[in-house]
Design brief:
GO molecular function: ATP binding; ATP hydrolysis activity; ATP-dependent DNA damage sensor activity; mismatched DNA binding
Keywords: DNA damage, DNA repair
Number of helices: 18
CATH architecture of the largest domain: 2-Layer Sandwich
Radius of gyration: 27 Å
Oligomer: single chain
Shape: elongated
Structural class: alpha+beta
CATH superfamily of the largest domain: MutL, C-terminal domain, regulatory subdomain
CATH topology of the largest domain: Ribosomal Protein S8, Chain: A, domain 1
Largest sheet: 6 strands, mixed
Strand order of the largest sheet: 3-4-2-1-5-6
GO biological process, one term: mismatch repair
InterPro entries: DNA_mismatch_repair_CS, DNA_mismatch_repair_MutL, DNA_mismatch_S5_2-like, HATPase_C_sf, MutL/Mlh/PMS, MutL/Mlh/Pms-like, MutL_C, MutL_C_dimsub
Number of strands: 20
Protein name: DNA mismatch repair protein MutL
CATH class of the largest domain: Alpha Beta
Number of domains: 3
């Protein structure tokens, strides 16, 4: 008997679903794209139980007849392409004709024609017949965040469409559809970010680039706020990201990233959208031309903005943002008492408690020190990161809170807010006095005392973005570990900040009281030494 057999239609659909439907957000993406392609200007997305129990998308688009609905449930049926040539001239978001049958194969699918116009499509009990796939879904908060992130991209890509996202009867995102990109950004990221953005508009040989970019005064710890759209399709293309980031390198620190919402309008024949099953990745026929256009657009947008300090200042003073609620720097940054003055460097005694004496701060980033024989170079940020991490790890330090005289309100995007909600209990355990305050907003009343020098709002935003990117573990111990690392990283003194001899001495002393004074919490080295013998060898002695 032949071992080669044709697969059943049901199994074929489930395999196709594996390409198209990875999680609830995948269903949201496919259904919303269909609504947009149908000309809708009002789209409502509702989910329950993180999308596992219900995903419902309603729109006021053109809709379908009963016959068309039946045809749409057949594989490879589509209204969006007619010939091979159409594949190289794509002007719609969805076109493969696999979404509805794929979704129907792993959920209870229901399609209704609305009385006025448009459709309502429901997908219930996602992965009910593929339990292994269902088992790999994350927590509700994570899945809600991913659905919200998908919808947010369409809000930014189509500011003329009104979107409403509801989770378990609670509205998490709403855009009016007024057509203003700045208004769309405010709906997604909040008004505070929207007012810090600059318009850009640049034509090039094959098309045009337009949108908004951030002033150098505002940046983020990850690339999650870099948004690129090609012919209104949200895409990932590392060359676009690189062109944007390279242009900002003299404006913001090297470990920070800009905020950008940039749309590339280009002849569809100049771009390939068929390189990925979900069409998230694209290839340009003329990469260098598009990258140059991005750089040029950003440069023009930033032309009249002065770059922030590059860290080459010669002053050795320790300048920190001070608010009324903050304790004096020496009480927070170095909580133990230190004398108001220090003896001359040559008189600083080397001891077990202070095995290195500071000599000089190099480029306001590295401490050059000596043990009386050789030399050591310490990364000040990594060293302080290790100190804070160890103190946060000790239970008694976690309960030490620096109250804020004036509470700060922070507005987050939906996915970052979902990440905070998922970890809120652990964040509060760590010493943050924070609570929800309206839709995707939080009010901060206190921070861990060890972080007192840092702006509470800035620290909280960076923490939220870290959790969105790296907070996906289901293990409690790993979640706590990631939180400590994130708080330590964003609270530590940064490269470019000057330190006095007193502060350098105290930093070294506290570093060698930690459990591991040689690496930062992420495992990177924070100190290296050159022995006297190595120095002598350099001089051929």
């Amino acid at each position: 008997m032949s071992e080669i057999k044709l697969l059943s239609e049901d199994l074929i659909n489930k395999i196709a679903a594996g390409e198209v439907v990875e999680r609830p957000a995948s269903v949201v993406k496919e259904l919303v794209e269909n609504s947009i392609d149908a000309g809708a200007d009002r789209i409502v997305v509702e989910i329950e139980d993180g999308g596992k129990k219900l995903i419902r998308v309603s729109d006021n688009g053109r809709g379908m007849t009963e016959t068309e609905i039946r045809l749409a449930l057949e594989r490879h049926s589509t209204s969006k392409i007619r010939s091979v040539d159409d594949l190289f001239n794509i002007r719609t978001l969805g076109f493969r004709g696999e979404a509805l049958p794929s979704i129907a194969s792993i959920s209870q699918l229901k399609i209704e024609r609305n009385q006025s116009s448009g459709l309502t499509i429901e997908a219930k009990d996602l992965f009910y017949n593929t339990p292994v796939r269902k088992k790999f879904l994350k927590s509700n908060a994570t899945e809600i965040g991913r659905c919200g992130d998908i919808i947010a991209k369409y809000v930014l890509a189509f500011p003329g469409i009104s979107f409403k996202f509801v989770s378990d009867s609670k509205t998490l995102l709403f855009s009016s559809g007024g057509g203003d990109l700045l208004g769309a950004v405010a709906a997604v990221y909040g008004a505070a970010i929207a007012k810090e953005l600059l318009p850009v508009n640049k034509s090039f040989a094959s098309g045009n680039i337009a949108g908004l970019i951030s002033r150098p005064t505002i940046s983020r710890v990850d690339k999650g706020y870099e948004n690129f759209f090609v012919n209104s399709r949200y895409v990932r293309n590392f060359l676009l990201n690189r062109a944007l980031e390279e242009t900002y390198r003299t404006y913001i620190p090297g470990n920070r990233y800009p905020i950008a919402v940039l749309s590339v309008a280009i002849d569809p024949r100049e771009v390939d959208v068929n390189v990925h099953p979900t069409k998230i990745e694209v290839k340009f026929m003329k990469n260098q031309e598009v990258m140059a256009a991005v750089r040029s657009a950003v440069v023009e947008g930033l032309t009249n903005i002065s770059p922030i300090s590059s860290g080459n200042q010669t002053s050795n003073s320790f300048a920190l943002p001070q608010g009324e609620w903050q304790a004096p720097m020496t009480d927070v940054f170095f909580p133990e008492e230190i004398p108001p003055t220090m003896p001359e460097r040559s008189a600083v005694a080397i001891s077990d408690e202070l095995p290195l004496a500071p000599l000089y701060q190099l480029k306001n980033a590295y401490i050059v020190a000596t043990d009386g024989s050789g030399l050591s170079v310490i990364d000040q940020h990594a060293a302080h990161e290790r100190i804070i991490y160890d103190r946060l790890t000790r239970q008694e330090e976690i309960k030490s809170v620096q109250a804020m005289l004036i509470p700060e309100t922070v507005e987050l995007d939906l996915s970052a807010a979902s990440a905070i909600r998922e970890h809120l209990g652990l964040i509060q355990e760590m010493g943050f006095e924070v609570e929800e305050f309206g839709q995707n907003s939080f009010i901060i009343r206190g921070v861990p005392a060890i972080c007192g020098k840092t702006s509470g709002a800035e620290l909280f935003v960076d923490l939220a973005n870290d959790l969105r990117e790296n907070g996906k573990s289901d293990q409690l111990a790993v979640k706590k570990e990631n939180l400590r690392k994130s708080v330590a990283c964003h609270s530590a003194i940064k490269a470019g900040e000057g330190m006095t001899t007193v502060e350098m001495t105290t930093l070294i002393r506290d570093l060698f009281r930690t459990e591991n004074p040689t690496t930062c919490p992420h495992g990177r080295p924070l100190i290296f030494s050159i022995t006297a013998a190595e120095i002598e060898k350099k001089f051929h002695r």
